[in-house]
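thread: overnight batch results

M.L. [08:02]
morning all. the overnight job finished for the chain we discussed friday. pasting input first so we're all looking at the same thing
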Amino acid sequence: MPFVESSIIINGNIDEIYKIAKDMEKYPEFMPDVKSVKVVAREENQTTTKWITSVEGTPICWTEVDVFDDENKNIKYCLIEGDLDKFEGEWIFTQNSEGTKVELTVDFDFGMPTLAELLGPILTEKVRENSMMMLNSMKNKIEGLEA
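M.L. [08:03]
and the structure it wrote out:
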């Protein structure tokens, strides 16, 4: 199963960046490939969210559970239903001398072995591109560079 890890340094306060990352319903405002995110359940340290994204014009929909570790500035997510067989990972936020390092991991399985054999590298690259788009969009929002 493919695993993608991406990271970026954002010139901003870790608490501010983490707060924006937790507000997933606002992602469509600054992440073009994220069409909608809706919180369908909220508990003390977790949400259940429904996502609609677009990859190369193809909609991909799923529902996930997001677990927030406010003390360690970490968000773990895991698919509970949707277009993929597996989609999970985490956001990791670390303050350093350059700003805040934001890491995003994605562990996924499209659930079609034939498709994975034929298009695995292409699909992995699309997930990597989408992850970097999300990180760059967050960086632009924090650093005030959005168009």
